[in-house]
Amino acid sequence: MIGGMRCRTAGSLLLALLLGSVPASLATATAGTPVPKLSSRQRAEKIAELSAEERAWMIVYVAPIVLAEERDLFLQLSTDYQREMFRKEFWARRERDGLAPPLGPGYQTRYAHLREVAAQEYDGVDSDAGRMVVRMGEPAGVEDLPRCSEVFRQAEIWTYPNGSSRSDGRHLFYRPSFGAPRRLWVPGDREIFQTSSCLSTFDQACAITSSGSPSKSRDSACPGSSVPKSCGGACSVAALTAQIALRGSDEASVLSRSPAVSSEGLEGLWLRLASVSDPTAKPIAIEGRAARPFSAPEERAEPPEAWSNEKIRDFILTLPKKYREWLDLAGPLLSREDLVSFLRLPPAERDAYVRRFWKQHAHVR
Question: pTM for the complete prediction?
Fold first, then answer.
């Protein structure tokens, strides 16, 4: 096979352009043309046009993991058949070998499980903890800090395997009040400190004196003779927050960005889906009458150049799926004359034609 998927995409593009079935906005497109972007208004209009099921799938179920380009592509599809093809490609792209966890083989099932776990064990899918679990999977380890309960508000250190979180793999969570949903700590957030701790910085919590407590600073909130508090894990937390501070705004964005999936190939998918019709659709009515399914031309001797693009397109759309997929793959190697010759064949002779074709082109397989 020449170039693997690249050859397949080229075939789809060749046939789409040849048959004139690509929308006008794509008439001059090439394999490198990006998916057309939608404005906020266009996006809202497209979402409103979706069925309740499709809307729930796109803006709720896969919203945490969908790429912006994928969302715009999906919203510009016009048939249920196209959207079903999109969904299959959507999960297939996330189940490829070699992707960082939680992506990879079996991801579609794993994602459904992660949403359930987030809802039941991590404060809900819309909480900070739930959003991280849905996107990144469950942490490999969670370190509670019970001995620091007088210093931090139910703090937890989450650890992910290297490469899973696009950072050093550690994050700090706390609960603003007892039993409240976990909150991801980001630089500048001081609510993590217990009021009674009299602390305002992590370095202060770590600066333990000979008396076993941090020194009382000028801006300390300690009343009277009270002294700031510390704990055995204070220095570990201080070191972690210093690392997180270096990430800046990247730490907050971890809750909103989708898992690392390449957008490569979306252009070809867009062109392919835009040129596909639903093979189960009812015949289109013409002037009050149902159009008859396209059949093989009676004029068997008609030269290839006499076949219009519309005629070729209509014929291809009546082919079984396996032959349409073969045309996608073989497109770069077919001349217009070859294509018409294939379409003219009786159904019983098509398989033999395909076998002969690959035998003649064995060197490109």
Answer: 0.64
Taking each helix axis from N to C end, the angle separating 80-94 and 266-274, rounded to the nearest 10 degrees, works out to: 160
| Beta strands per DSSP E along 204-356 | 285-286, 289-290
241 and 234 Cβ atoms separated by less than 8 Å: no
DSSP string, 351-364: HHHHHHHHHHTGGG
216 neighbors 152 (Cβ within 8 angstroms): no
Total length of the chain: 365
The one-letter code for the residue type at 7 is: C
Tell me the torsion sign for CA atoms 104, 110, 112, 116. negative
Rounded to the nearest 10 degrees, the angle between the axes of helix 107-121 and helix 128-136 is 160
Which of 173, 171, 63 has the alpha carbon at shortest distance from 111? 63
Using DSSP, state whether 141 is helix, strand or coil. Answer: strand
pLDDT band at 25 (very low <50, low <70, confident <90, very high): very low
Backbone phi, psi, residue 289, to 5°: -120, 150
Q: What is the pLDDT of residues 248-287, one digit of tens each?
A: 888 888 888 888 887 777 887 777 776 655 455 443 333 3
> Which residues lie across from 158 on neighbouring strands?
142, 171
